[in-house]
Structure formats: C-alpha cells, structure tokens
Amino acid sequence: MNRNAPIPEFERKGEVIWDIPVSYKKGMIVPARIYSSEKLIKAMDRAVYDQLTNVACLPGIQERALCMPDAHSGYGFPIGGVAAFDPNTGVISPGGIGFDINCGMRLVTTNLTYKEVQPKLKPLVDLLFQQVPAGVGCKGFVKLTAQEFKKVMQNGAKWCVENGYGWDEDLERIEDYGCIEHAEESKVSDKAISRGINQLGTLGSGNHYLEIQYAGQIFDKKTAEKLGIVSEDQICVMVHCGSRGFGHQIGTDYLKIFSEAMRKYDITVPDAELACAPFSSKEGQDYYHAMACAANAAFANRQVILHRIRECFHKIFEKTPEQMEMHLVYDVAHNIAKLEEHKIGNKMKKLVVHRKGATRCFGPSRTELAPMFRKTGQPVIVGGSMETGSYLLLGTDKASEETFGSTAHGSGRTMSRTQARREIRGDQLQKDMEKRGIYVRTTSFSGLAEEAGAAYKSISEVVDVMDKAGISKKLVKFTPIGNIKG
Amino acid sequence: MPFKFIEDIAIADVAFQATGKNLNELFESAAKAVIASMANPKTVKPKIKKTIRKKAKNIELLLFELLEEIIYLKDKDAIVFSDAKVKVDEKKMTVTAILHGDKIRPTEQELHQDVKAVTMHYYTVEKIKGKWKASVVLDI
C-alpha cells in the first residue's frame, strides 16, 4: 500500500467535497471526489488517494471515482469507494465489491424499552451468542442439501420466508426485496457451494456483529415513527454480516479468472486486486451472475439470523415476536455491484455501480423502493464500533444526482488490527465495557481488541458529512448495550 | 521467525511476510502464517490430518493455491490447524502439504480471525540474494 502517495492539490467544491483532478496521476480518465470534513481528510490514510485514483483509471468509468468519509485503504478499491461504469464500454471488478459479497446491515425494532430489557440483558445476549454462531469457521443451524442451497442462492430471503424463517412483510423491507433476479447457479463453483453450505445463519468474525441497542437520539420523530421507531428508550437489534465462505470463494474464483481475462482483453491495472473484465464479456457476465448468487445467500443469511433473534427474544421475554413488534426496518448491502439508472449530464443512463464499503441510499423518487419508502426515502443503516453507536439515515434524491445513489457504510478504521491488538487487551476491554453498561460476548479476545472503539473514526462525524452534503439525512442514533462478536 | 505480520500494509486486513532458504521453507512459513491468523497453533491438537496437492502455472500462483486451500478447508470442514509440512516440486510446479489440526472448539482453542481470502494486493513471491520471500495480504 502506498502510504507515501502524494497529498493531492484538492479542488474544494464545498464544505465537505474535495476533488482530485485528473492531473494527479497519469492514466486517470475521470477526476476523483472525496466526501469529508476537514478534520477527517487531514487524518485520512494517504493510500486512499492512491487507491481511489487507481479506480479513476479503469476503462469505462463515468463522471468521477467517489469516496465516502468513512474511507480507509483496502485492496483494489479503497473501502468507502463508489464507481460507476458504462455497461457497454466499461468493466466489472471483484476488487470493487470485496470478497464478502453483499456484506450488509439489518435493523429490527421491538416495542420493548431499555428498562424492560436491561434486567434480562445478560441472559438475552448469552442466548443469542449460543443461537447465532460467530467466529472462525462457524456452522449454522440450517441443514441444507446442495439442491436446496441452490434454491437459496436463486431466491435469497424469499426462500427463507417460504421455509418458515421470517414474515411476508420482511421482504419489502430488504434491498431488492431480498432476491436479485439475475442469479445463475451454473456460474458458481462446487467449491464455493461446499464452503458455504453449512454456514447459513452465522455471523463470521472481523467487524461482524449482532448488537442490542436503544434509539438514544431521534432527529426526526415524525419520519422515525413511520419506520417503527417511536421513543428514545426503544430497543432495536442490528446485524452486520455477509455471504460467508460461499461469497468469499466466489470472489477468489473470479479473481483468478479475471487475472487471466485481463490479458485476453488487453487491460492493465495498477494493482492486481483491481483485476477486471469488460462487463459485457463472458467473464464479466459470469461474475455478475455468480455475484448475485452470493448476494442472495447473504440476504438469506441475515434473514435466518433475524428468525433466530425473534426466537431468542420470545424465549427470554415470553411474548411472541408479533407482540413485541419485531419488525424489520431495513436490510441493505454495502459490498455489491448493481445495474442501476442514474443521471449522467441531463440523461438517465444504465450504469454498473460498484459499492465497496458504501451503501445504496435511494431517495423517495426511486421506483426500485417498496411503496412504503417512496415517501421517506430508503433507510440506510450505518454501523459504528461496538463502543460508540450506530445510525439510521434516509436516502435522498440528491444522492442519485451526485453519488450514484450512495453514502457511507460505517465509521471506518483508523488503527490497524495489529496495532489495536498490541495496544488493547480484549479481556480488559470486555470488563471495561461491562462497567459502562455494554455486555459483550466474543469467541476471540484478540478479535475483540481489534474492534475497539479507539480503532475507528467518529461515526457522528462521518454521518454529519453526508448529512451536510444532502446525500443521506440523519434519522436515529443508536446506543449499544449488548454485543456479540465473532 | 519464518514469518512476521506487517502492521502498516493493511488497516482492516492482515498482512505478512514469509521467508525461506528454499521454496519448501518459504511455502511452509507462509502456510504457518495463514494458520496462525486463524488460531494460535499451540492451542490446537493435531487430531486430524489433511493433505493438499496443488499444481499451477507459476510459483506465485502455486503459493496462492496452497494458501487459498487452507482457508477453504477451515470453512468446509470447520477445522483449524496446528502445523504444516510442505514440499514444492519447482520443475513440475506442484506442491504437497500435510497439515494437522482439529475441529474448531472455541472453548479449548485460542481462535483469531475468520480469514476470508488471499488477496493479490501487493502480492509477491521473489528470490532476493538467494533467499525466498513472499508478501501476502489476507482479507479479514
């Protein structure tokens, strides 16, 4: 990673908009744009500039390469990166999506208050820790044949609801109704299936979590009520995970295929992780269809976890999930590529939008949204560190004009995992958090240390940037009280 | 130390450098780095034996295939490893690795990260002054 990348001579286009002109690097087809406050950009890891401007060199890129305020360097694209490509002349790149295809967020309401949950918090978190497997190589409780798993990859969350793992209403509260239609099982290797078949209903590790929170601060009460969040002591549950080993293997398989394909199509890239193929090529289309299988498996994974959450609350509070009004608020991906229409100049144009650590945030006018969100805009769930809280935002129509309908996805790391492990002791952190009223269970103390709040940027500062830019509006800030970490 | 984790290469992921006097040592060091990323090998009992055989077009891809397979087995068989012995045939461009390990037991083993993939980000395998060296970033 190029930590010595030169600091660009930014062209500042507003309080939170920083443009990098094409003169920054040879080969840039379009400029790059970073959404950030002055404070965040000063602290931004310099490799982001290098990686973002590498993206600006990719064939067929449209308008500008974008970066959200939670950005940090990754591999290929920076995390927080957004780029749109012409489907006829442009590329698709697994490095613009990430190995964890459709890693995403899910938010669930309850009608329970903090006072009602707090006395039963420990047994609740302990039960969830037992029922929602987390950590290295964990196996899920849904046992599937390969044939049945193929139905999961084809139908996503729809398969879950049809098989008793959810409510009918859940589906309209998921991006693309929890099922991306162009999934093609024939484009997925047997290896990917054998790797992921036992992992439905699992969290994994890294920054994945299941968190009990209360709605500590509501910014727009009227709109929040429409989404089922009515009071500032209301308990909600947030989940962050993705497509597990199944998606990771599809990413690996196609990284190798694309590395070969680049020679065939005479494409050169500055970082091997930007391996790509023309979107319209056989390789590009095969990946697009395989990626949809992984995306559907991720929707199904989070749906099965929701089912488990409802079961656990039922057991602890001795009320049905319906009585506790455990409605899904929304489920949204932040690692994905989608074919979407956005405005280029004065015309709407179909584009292959890559979001890597960035969230779709469509405004009320988008017909892709279920009717219930066409007045509010799409709910956007931005997950923070386990110590500092998370946000629910709403997408705006301005996002479709400026950011290909995209916003931030989290707080963004500032400290490497190794540094966090060296500076923070996981067992001590667990005790400290408990004293502060946050009960955490983990399968790995080193993993817990890596996810400490100190390793992340301020989430409030990140969401404020996108709010000021008019891209996504703040609706609710959640405060954590219980957390399960892989 | 045949491998060391590198702090400043990847903020959200894990990077390591592996070295060896020859390819056998290099591949073994890199395999051990991947194993140690997932669990402390000292806490894993060598109850299960797994043999990996891979062939590739060049030495970079051969190491990639070996490391990728270790990660695959972790998920497919829900297993973590205690040790690896590796033999590389440079002429045939093949690798054979014998790994020992055990089913994942969170209460008995010190588990680390659920590694997702080997990336090609700054991925290198090279011979410098007679010594083999590889740089690898794992996606976490």
Tally of helical segments of chain A: 15
Number of β-strand runs of chain B: 8
Largest sheet of chain A: 8 strands, mixed
Measured between the Cα atoms of the first and last residue of chain B, the distance is 23 Å
Category by helix and strand content of chain B: alpha+beta
Order of helices and strands of chain B: EEHEHEEEEE
State the secondary-structure class of chain A. Answer: alpha+beta
Between the first and last Cα atoms of chain A, what is the distance in angstroms? 27 Å
- In helices, the fraction of residues of chain A equals 25-40%
The number of distinct helices of chain B, counting runs of at least 4 residues, comes to: 2
Largest β sheet strand count, sense and barrel closure of chain B: 5 strands, antiparallel
Radius of gyration of chain B: 14 Å
**Record field, number of beta strands of chain A:** 19
Shape of chain A: globular
- State the share of residues found in helices of chain B, binned by percent: 10-25%
Mass-distribution shape of chain B: globular
In what range is the share of β-strand residues of chain A?
15-25%
Extract low-pLDDT stretches of chain B.
none
Radius of gyration of chain A: 21 Å
State the largest interface. Answer: A-B, 53 and 41 residues
**What oligomeric arrangement do these chains adopt?**
heterodimer
Features:
heterodimer; A: 486 residues; alpha+beta; 8-stranded mixed sheet; 7-stranded mixed sheet; 15 helices; globular; B: 140 residues; 5-stranded antiparallel sheet; 3-stranded antiparallel sheet; 2 helices
What does this structure look like?
The complex is a heterodimer of chains A (486) and B (140). Chain A is an alpha+beta fold and 486 residues long. Chain A is 32% helix and 24% strand. Chain A has 15 helices and 19 strands. Chain A has helices spanning 38-43, 47-55, 114-117, 121-131, 146-155, 157-162, 190-196, 221-226, 244-264, 282-317, 397-402, 417-423, 426-435, 445-450, 459-468; strands at 11-14, 17-20, 32-35, 65-72, 79-85, 91-92, 104-113, 209-218, 234-241, 277-278, 328-333, 335-344, 347-356, 359-360, 379-382, 390-395, 406-407, 439-442, 472-485. In chain A, the strands form four sheets. In chain A, strands 7, 8, 9, 11, 15, 16, 18 and 19 form an eight-stranded mixed β-sheet that branches. Chain A has a seven-stranded mixed β-sheet with strand order 1-2-3-4-5-13-12, with helices on both faces. In chain A, strands 6-10 form a two-stranded antiparallel ribbon. In chain A, strand 1 and strand 2 (17-20) form a beta hairpin. Chain A is globular, with a radius of gyration of 21 Å. The model of chain A has no long low-confidence stretch (mean pLDDT 95). Chain B has helices at residues 23-38, 59-76; strands at residues 3-6, 14-20, 48-55, 79-89, 94-103, 117-118, 124-128, 131-139. Chains A and B meet through helix 7, helix 9, helix 12 and helix 14 of A and helix 2 and strand 6 of B.
